[in-house]
Amino acid sequence: MFTLYNAAMWWKLKSDPIFTIQGAADLSRRAWVVSVMEEKKDILAVQTLRNSTMAATFLASTAILLSVGVLSLTGQAENVGTTWHSLNIFGSTEQSTLALKLLVLLVNLFIAFFSFSSSIRLYNHVGFMLNVPSIDGNYSSSMTFVAMQLNRAASHFHFGMRAFYFMVPLVFWIFGPLLLLVSTGAMICVVYFLDRTPKMYCDYMTPFSIKSCKLE
Question: What residues does each domain of the chain span?
Answer without folding.
Answer: 2-208
